[in-house]
Specification:
Layout (H helix, E strand, L loop, with lengths): L39 E13 L4 E6 L4 E6 L5 H7 L7 E10 L14 E12 L16 H6 L1 H4 L3 H23 L3 E2 L17 E3 L7 E3 L5 H9 L4 E9 L11 E10 L3 H20 L9 E3 H8 L12 E3 L10 H4 L3 E7 L7 H12 L7 E5 L5 E2 L8 H11 L6 E7 L1 H18 L10 E5 L4 E4 L4 E4 L11 H7 L8 E6 L2 E8 L4 H10 L4 H14 L7 E7 H9 L29 H7 L10
Parallel strand pairs: 3-5, 6-9, 11-17
Antiparallel strand pairs: 1-2, 1-4, 2-3, 4-5, 7-8, 9-10, 10-22, 12-13, 13-16, 14-15, 14-16, 17-20, 18-19, 20-21, 21-22
Helix pairs in contact: 4-6, 9-11, 13-14
This protein binds one RNA strand through strand 1, strand 2, strand 3 and helix 2.
RNA sequence: GGAGCCGUAGUUCAGUUGGUUAGAACGCCGGCCUGUCACGCCGGAGGCCGCGAGUUCGAGUCUCGUCGGCUCCGCCA
């Protein structure tokens, strides 16, 4: 009926399309209720489902807000009904009709608009649609490869659409809160200078200065510090940042940061502001009240108790250092280890041998050599492949230290400290999920403070900044930086929520001497510092105020707010793990002309 | 750079030890249907088993390579 060949042979399936002709939408599709009974309304949207009974025809009309059932009835309006047989999924239609109550027992309690329906007087076919490659509804029946290729269709799915509506509310909450505290939204450049430290830069070739490159910002770090030196006092920006590193379920090459900087403040003032911001976002998007004061823990405590610098405090298990118990043990694996840590799971003895084997493979990912364990039976007997190597006093000490009870399981990691902590800390998260220790809809924020200023980079054989090279050392630690760089503590802090790092910041260096000391500790020569950061070193000499700030990962926060398991579900047009866009097919090759203008010559492809 | 899982109809998947004509559900097309809401009933069409080699009398199934998607380690100040 719809596809026709015109007289001139041109295939034109759009000749029956209607125009709006001044029709105006009166309501969205999640809006009508019994309160609107008897009203004439005009709705527009996409056809979600069609249920053609031959006589009555029902369609569910969808827009971003929801669904409304529309009825075509031969008795009510036979012309409208006759034309409606041709309606298919995803056609775009406008209907004018009467809001009426559904017959007895026909209400649909799963729809907000389920008590009513709109019976059609007149309707317009605004556009046709090919049969979509996958069904547009919330039950996931398409793979991500298809969903990303047809992202614009995927985004019609209510579940996904809701994420972006919520994301908008989060953004709005940020702007409202920051404005209320006198922060100015100031834009910083996207074409900027490559930095030697940190992540790999995305580079943009300069046409005007051939052979030179801009870099896309990993963060507006230096610009926001310079804005403090300009006297702007309180700055924020919701800003795209770029890092050319490998992707993860919670990492995209371009991501959005809530970037904040303040002058004349110390850590506590930045943190107080930041807590208020996060509380406002949670309140105004999902109506959750976060605690009025977030707990704090030092980096050292986090590693000691949780093995990770982003502890998930939604459940209580803690790692225990048991190195001392086994110092002189006959069990050489423990005695010779740099660190031995134990994690007890109450009632964990139910784990099967296979599950334990799986956990063994799991910790191997982190470089662990193996996973030792002890199951405690009903009668208190220990079942374990390693206990036979323990002396009686070692068993007693362990029993007391770990407060061992019947049905417990103990897991051990022994070896190099960083591997022990990472492996056992990650296993802790896994076990928390396995034993359902994490309650739904709980949010456990925590500040992690007192980070080391520097960490040793084995590959480069030098210290690198743990946070970034502009982070101030704690009072008195400047001397430590020179004498024992690895021991110096910084004025950096991270905000962790449910085991995810959602924000990080620091009080910055505002004295040129301290900045030079820092560069020196990082093995950056005075010449190199001059070359890369001359503008910063100069600016610091013209009255830089004490300042500090924080940056939040907007995408990750929205993930937590929506419960999304992938960052791709809160980014409208995300990239695949290979950093490509399946829809636009970016990145792509460019013409020789474009390359020539940039003075770029591609390496010849080797012939096979 | 490395490890793992996956790739079969438009979609989601099944496919036994390698064996004849590769199946199901949903979707699509046609017919019937006046209270459905993932409507129902009847009928039909639809396949480069990701791609390329190899083993074999014979490959969706085994081997190697390759491309693509996902998860993770490294990396991500």
């Amino acid at each position: 009926m719809v596809d026709q060949i015109q007289d001139d042979g041109v295939y034109d399936k759009y000749r029956w399309l209607d125009t709006l002709d001044g029709w105006k939408r009166s309501h969205h599709n999640n809006e009508l209720s019994a309160a609107n009974l008897g009203q004439q309304v005009c709705l527009m949207g996409w056809v979600q489902f069609r249920r053609d009974h031959g006589g009555l025809i029902f369609i569910d009309l969808r827009d971003r807000e929801g669904l409304t059932q529309v009825v075509f009835s031969p008795e009510y309006n036979s012309t409208a009904h006759e034309r409606a047989h041709a309606i298919r999924a995803e056609y775009v239609v406008a209907v004018k009709g009467l809001v009426r109550e559904r017959p007895d027992g026909m209400a649909n309690s799963s729809l907000v608009t389920g008590e009513i329906e709109v019976v059609v007087d007149e309707w317009k076919l605004l556009n046709l649609s090919e049969t979509p490659p996958f069904t547009i509804e919330d039950r996931d029946d398409a793979g991500e490869q298809h969903r990303l290729k047809y992202r614009y269709l995927d985004l019609r799915r209510p579940k996904l659409a809701r994420n972006f509506i919520l994301r908008h509310k989060a953004t709005r909450a940020v702007r409202k809160y920051m404005d209320s505290l006198g922060f100015l939204d100031i834009e910083t450049p996207v074409l900027t200078k490559a930095t030697p430290e940190g992540a790999r830069d995305y580079l943009v070739p300069s046409r005007v200065t051939q052979g030179s490159f801009y870099a896309l910002p990993q963060s507006p770090q230096l610009f926001k510090q310079l804005l403090m030196m300009s006297g702007f006092d309180r700055y924020y920006q919701i800003v795209k940042c770029f890092r050319d590193e490998d992707l993860r379920a919670d990492r995209q090459p371009e991501f959005t940061q809530i970037d904040i900087e303040m002058s004349f403040v110390d850590e506590s003032q930045v943190q107080e502001m930041a807590e208020g911001l996060v509380r406002a976002m949670f309140k105004e998007t999902i109506d959750v009240d976060l605690p009025t004061q977030f707990p704090r823990m030092t980096y050292a405590e986090a590693i000691r108790d949780y093995g990770l610098d982003k502890p998930d405090l939604r459940f209580d298990l803690k790692l225990q250092n048991v190195s001392d118990i086994f110092e002189k043990s006959d069990f050489k694996v423990f005695a010779k280890a740099g660190l031995v840590k134990c994690l007890k799971v109450p009632n964990g003895a139910q784990l099967s041998r296979k599950e334990i084997d799986d956990y063994t493979h799991f910790v191997e990912i982190y470089g662990s050599q193996g996973l030792a364990w002890i199951k405690v039976k009903e009668d208190g007997q220990w079942q374990s492949p390693i206990v036979k190597f323990f002396s009686e006093s070692e068993c007693e000490a362990l029993k007391e230290r770990m407060n061992v009870q019947a049905h417990d399981i103990l897991f051990f990691q022994a070896g190099q400290a960083d591997i022990v902590n990472t492996a056992l800390g990650s296993l802790r998260i896994k076990l928390g999920e396995r034993f359902d220790l994490i309650q739904d809809n709980t949010f456990a924020p925590v500040w992690v403070t007192d980070f080391p200023l520097l960490e040793w980079d084995e590959e480069e054989k030098r210290f690198t900044a743990m946070h970034h090279p502009f982070t101030a050392a704690q009072p008195g630690e400047l001397k430590t930086v020179q004498e024992n760089p690895g021991a110096a503590l910084s004025r950096a802090y991270d905000l962790v929520l449910n085991g995810q790092e959602i924000g990080g910041g620091s009080i910055r260096i505002h004295s040129v001497e301290e900045q030079q000391t820092m560069f020196k500790a990082l093995g950056i020569s005075a010449r190199e510092a001059e070359e890369k950061f001359a503008f910063l070193l100069e600016a610091l000499q013209y009255g830089a105020p004490p300042h500090g700030g924080i940056a939040f990962g907007m995408d990750r926060i929205v993930m937590l707010l929506t419960g999304a398991s992938s960052i791709r579900d809160v980014i409208a047009f995300p990239k695949t793990q290979k950093a490509t866009c399946l829809m636009t097919e970016a990145p792509s090759t460019v013409s020789k002309k474009q390359l020539a203008e940039l003075g770029i010559k591609l390496r010849e492809k080797k012939e096979e």
